[in-house]
Every structure is written in C-alpha cells, then in structure tokens.
Design a protein that fits this description.
This protein has helices at about 5-35, 40-75. It is mainly α. It has one domain (about 5-75). The radius of gyration is 18 Å and the shape is elongated.
C-alpha cells in the first residue's frame, strides 16, 4: 500500500500537536509550582520559564496553521 501524497504533512501536524501538548503539560506544572511559591525571586524565574514556553507555543501554533494550509492545498490537488 502506498502512502498518501500528504502523509508527510499529516505526520508533521501530528508532531506539532504532540509538541503543543508537551508545552501545555509543562505550563500546567509551572502553574502549580507557582501557586505554591512564596519567594518572589523564584516566582520571577518561573514566570520567565512560562514566558519562554508561551513563545514556543505561539511559534508551534503558527507552524501548525501553516501545516494545515499545506495539507488543505495538498488534498485539493
């Protein structure tokens, strides 16, 4: 059985979705850790990690949107 001509794009979308879920899991863990944190400096460090993960998440969401557009284009041919 041959692979779909769009299978590489589909695999890329699945990888991005897994990466996004990993980031969401990390963000949740940091949120829980931050709720218990009393020391301001440590809280600031946690917030920097959250900011970095949010930036990665936005980049992945952009990549996911581009991949969906590529998939729609692939399927239309």
């Amino acid at each position: 059985m041959s692979q779909s001509p769009c299978s590489q794009i589909e695999a890329r979308i699945q990888k991005i979705e897994r990466d996004l879920q990993d980031i969401d899991d990390q963000l949740h863990a940091l949120e829980v850790e931050g709720l218990d944190e009393q020391h301001p400096q440590t809280y600031i460090e946690l917030q920097k990690k959250v900011d970095h993960l949010n930036k990665k998440k936005r980049e992945l969401q952009d990549a996911w949107n581009r991949a969906l557009t590529d998939l729609a284009d692939c399927r239309s041919h």
